[in-house]
Amino acid sequence: MRVAVTGAGGRLGQALVRALGEAPFTGPGGPIAWTRQAFDLDAPGSVGELLERERVEVVIHAAAWTDVDACAREPGLAHARNGEATGILAHACATRGIDLIAISTNEVFGGRRTDGIGYGPGDAMAPANPYGASKAAGERLARDAYEGPTRAQLAIVRTAWLFGPGKPDFPTKILIAAQEAARTAEPLRVTGDEWGCPTYTADVADAVVELLAENAFAGIHHVVNGLFATRADWARYVVGRAMLEVDVENVPMASWQRDSTPPRWGVLEPTPLPSGEPLRPWPDAMADYAPLLLRETAGRPRVGR
Q1: Is 131 among the catalytic positions?
Q2: Would you identify the CATH topology of the domain 3-162+197-222?
């Protein structure tokens, strides 16, 4: 199976390329890794020629502009990159009978729920910020492209609060801040009223490989690690793993001035995978990631127990 991954240089894209490289159905050559040089969200018009030249059978669209604050400052650019470019790619795939798995986000939901229930695939999208609006637009345009006559399948995979190797993620930033807080004997102030599902990129990638292996992946999938947490809960886990003497203090979201407003309740209800097994709880995934996280920040001065 000829599988291409857009955004192959990003955090999730790298995990997808690694997981697909180990999947027998991608053959000895493995997946086709498209970085920005191959597929540019600012210039998606030639993607049809690229699909034909590479003889692609499936595209996993992981490329996105994920700087949510920058998206808030430039909503038109966010819509072009995350919405229109996705629509152009989807149309090119659908007209050629190529399957598409489009990666999306929990931020297509507004986060105003108060019932403690995660958002499901059937819940109406109501984004609260330009990043979420741009990703919701991409989902709609992709569905429009696949509503016409085509033998191909469309899957939308929503995920949230991704962590893993790549540019500094939330655990990395927290660990660096905690090391400084330990040095100065100050508390670490972290948002305690924003809820979500910390999710390991390696686990998302494995789930996407499982969906592909079954060759029956059409529809909307919520792929997140089990359990949910506040940002402060997550920070306490990181601080504990690093054995730092730091108090994590809950503060409200309003404590931080930001251009974008994240959903207060960003929890997704996981959907079943073909195996019937859910992704593991996020603390178990963090336990696998923690050694790498600690090694990468080992060069910074810190105070430990």
Answers
A1: yes
A2: Rossmann fold (3.40.50)
